[in-house]
Design goal:
The protein is of the alpha/beta class. Strands 3-2-1-4-5-6-7 form a seven-stranded parallel sheet, with helices on both faces. Strands 10-9-8-11-12-13 form a six-stranded parallel sheet, sandwiched between helices. Helix 1 crosses helix 15, helix 8 crosses helix 13 and helix 11 packs across helix 14. The longest helix has 29 residues.
């Protein structure tokens, strides 16, 4: 089976990491004959994929509604000889459907969906999700599938597979105190951290409000935010307005996140709408206890009082209570770390998720071949 992964995304987020994880799972486990990533030349995934020597095809275009782009995409698919197209974002979805409708692209498509977002009432958006060429929609969690149900006519198209983590990149890293040294944090202070883009959905305001409350209570900790994004300056100003500049450390974008997370004594995640929360699973890999919001798909990977603690969305007092409780209870930490690690290794490794996805792709390709033979037979 020859798989063509198609994304038009220019940013680097969890979904782009997932493309790399699945590509490498397919490669390392011999799941597919060949595969290629089709992406824009100015995208982050292009940089990462080429840096890893993965097979990449550049596809640049100005608008996803440009029919020349749709025709060009068909040429790329045909030249590569793809058996199946795995679509990874909205613009790629649009181009794939237009390529099929106007230029006869006749390769089955599987759409990956990682957003908890309604399709809406736009005619074309509903059309492309229900398009006959989209054989399956792989959803990262049940909430992602649930929000699509009002717009998708055939619910059998949707399959939930869960998040994937490159466990080998995380599980071998141990705490050695380098963040304490890098940021001159006294050794007796705990580190409470977060890794996420500075965007509205991550709700850094609640995170900062939680820090303020913990500081008032005298919790002996420093607080590290790793990431970048459009709201970064806004959150920095908010921290200043709270006079917490000496407590909150903005560490920026880090390429060594897999080494940073083990340095945390607790991972505090206040995101108010999350498909699953891959960083929670990464924290499990690093054996770091987690307090997270009871939002979106987070409760599907964080079992309250079993693998971590859930707090109510936007409720900084609840977050502060749960954080203070957990940071001071070693037995509870040990329980969550053990159970979280077990959950990760039995549900979300590259091998497990890669096998689930390749089974779906194989089923689609096999069904497509059978249908083609039947059509020829009928003729």
């Amino acid at each position: 089976m020859r798989v063509l992964h198609f994304t038009a995304s220019k940013v680097w987020r969890g979904h782009e990491q997932m493309i790399i994880d699945i590509y490498e799972s397919f490669r390392d486990n011999g799941f597919v004959e060949d595969q290629i990533i089709v992406c824009k030349s100015d995208s982050e995934i292009y940089k990462v994929a080429t840096g890893k020597n993965l097979q990449v095809q550049v596809f640049d275009f100005k608008s996803e509604y440009n029919l020349k782009a749709a025709r060009k995409f068909k040429e790329i698919v045909t030249e590569y000889g793809a058996d199946i197209i795995k679509i990874h974002n909205s613009k790629a979805h649009t181009i794939s459907v237009l390529s099929s409708v106007f230029f006869g692209l006749n390769v089955p498509m599987v759409l990956s969906r990682t957003l908890i977002k309604n399709i809406g009432t736009n005619f074309f958006r509903k059309y492309k999700y229900n398009y006959k060429g989209i054989k399956k929609i792989i959803c990262i969690s049940e909430p992602v599938a649930d929000i699509l149900k009002s717009s998708i006519k055939n619910h059998d198209k949707m399959i939930v597979i869960g998040s994937v983590v490159d466990t080998d990149s995380f599980i071998h890293n141990k705490k050695n105190g380098f963040l304490h040294r890098e940021f001159n944090i006294p050794l007796e202070y705990k580190i409470i951290g977060n890794v996420s883009a500075f965007s509205k959905v991550k709700d850094h305001y609640t995170w900062v409000n939680t820090v303020e409350e913990l500081f008032k209570r005298g919790v002996k900790a420093k607080y590290i935010l790793i990431g970048e994004g459009s709201l970064e300056l806004e959150i920095k100003n908010y921290v200043k307005s709270k006079r917490l500049e000496n407590e909150v450390i903005f560490a920026g974008f880090r390429s060594d996140v897999q080494k940073c997370i083990p340095e945390f004594d607790l991972f505090l995640f206040t995101s108010k709408s999350e498909a699953t929360g891959g960083v929670i699973l990464e924290s499990y890999a690093c054996k770091v206890p987690v307090v997270a919001a009871r939002a979106g798909g987070i409760p599907t990977v964080l079992i309250d009082n079993e693998t971590g603690l859930l707090a109510e969305v936007g409720d900084f007092m609840d977050f502060a209570d749960k954080t203070e409780l957990l940071i001071n209870d070693k037995l509870l930490q040990d329980k969550f770390v053990k159970k979280g690690y077990e959950f990760l290794m039995t549900t979300s490794t590259r091998l497990i998720i890669g096998k689930k996805i390749v089974n779906i792709l194989n089923e689609v390709v096999s069904t497509n071949l059978i249908n083609k033979k039947n059509i020829k037979y009928d003729l």
